[in-house]
Write a structure and sequence with these properties.
CATH superfamily of the domain at 69-166: 5' to 3' exonuclease, C-terminal subdomain
Shape: elongated
Order of helices and strands: EEHHHHHHH
CATH topology of the domain at 69-166: DNA polymerase, domain 1
Strand content: 5-15%
Radius of gyration: 20 Å
Largest sheet: 2 strands, antiparallel
Distance between the termini: 14 Å
CATH class of the domain at 69-166: Mainly Alpha
Number of helices: 7
Structural class: alpha+beta
CATH architecture of the domain at 69-166: Orthogonal Bundle
Length: 167
């Protein structure tokens, strides 16, 4: 539910160039604090590993990360790693979509048929997938021009987003 951390200078013997990391983790009970920390560390290692692969991929074959197919580990990653807006995330969860591989297997039409998952949510999802190399960035803009939306649609989006934050 909540994580706080603090980094302090510390001394080990005569050496004073060390840091001490204190992490406070409060969970909702579905995971222990140790499990949550372990999962967070795994995610960080995996994501930082992708940065290390950027240089190797361009040197080895001149390919971008998005050109290769995602590995099985990445397909089994939870959708939480996409850091989606709450509205899109809640809609996916309500439709039992919990893994990135499931997201990649659906068509645009299937997403748009989901309750509370409109074009804006689809555009945000595609943007997050492209940023993480799961799909190729599209040459045309994925977002809709908000000036084309009727005022009531903009209000409905804002009201629904507010409801999602409250729940």
């Amino acid at each position: 539910r909540r994580v706080n951390y603090q980094v302090e200078k510390t001394r080990v013997g005569q050496m004073t160039n060390y840091d001490k990391l204190t992490v406070e983790i409060e969970t909702d009970g579905t995971k222990t604090a140790q499990e949550a920390l372990s999962q967070a560390a795994d995610i960080l290692v995996r994501e930082f590993g992708r940065f290390a692969e950027i240089g190797r991929a361009s040197i080895a074959g001149g390919e971008s990360m998005g050109a290769s197919a995602p590995s099985a580990n990445l397909l089994d990653a939870p959708i939480e790693e996409l850091d989606l807006p709450m509205r899109a995330y809640n809609s996916l969860k309500r439709n039992s979509i919990t893994k990135i591989g499931q997201v990649l297997s659906l068509s645009d039409d299937e997403f748009l048929r989901m309750r509370n998952f409109g074009q804006k949510s689809l555009d945000e999802l595609k943007e997050r997938l492209a940023l993480r190399g799961f799909i190729a960035p599209e040459s045309t803009s994925m977002s809709t021009d908000e000036s084309d939306l009727p005022a009531s649609a903009e209000l409905d989006e804002a009201a629904a987003a507010e409801l999602d934050r409250e729940s």
